[in-house]
Amino acid sequence: MKFYHVYILLCADGLTYTGITDDINRRFKEHQEGLNNRAFTFRRRPLQLIFQQEFNDVLQAIYFEKKIKKWSAKKKLALANGNFDLIQILAECRNASHYKYHSDQD
Description:
Elements: E1 4-10, E2 16-21, H1 24-33, E3 48-55, H2 58-69, H3 73-80, H4 84-96
Antiparallel strand pairs: 1-2, 1-3
Helix pairs in contact: 3-4
C-alpha cells in the first residue's frame, strides 16, 4: 500500500510551507539541500519538519493539504503542537470577523 504525507515545514524566517509527498524523507532532504533555487523554501533554510500526517488515499491527502494551506501560520503551528483547542479558537476568531456576523443595524 502506498502512503502520502501532508507536511508543514517551519522556515528559518518563521514562515511555514505546506506540501504533500509520497516519500517524506526524500522530500525533506530535497527542501533542506535547496535543489531548486526558485522554490519557496530555498532562501528560507534551514528548515524544520514540524508536522506530518500520513494518508493511504491520495485524494484525502490533497484535500487536507489544500485545506491547511489556507490556514494562518498561528493555526498551522497550533496543529503542529497538537493544540487543537487553539485551532478552534483561531477559527472562531476569524469567523467572528466574517460579514455574516455583522448586523445591518448600527
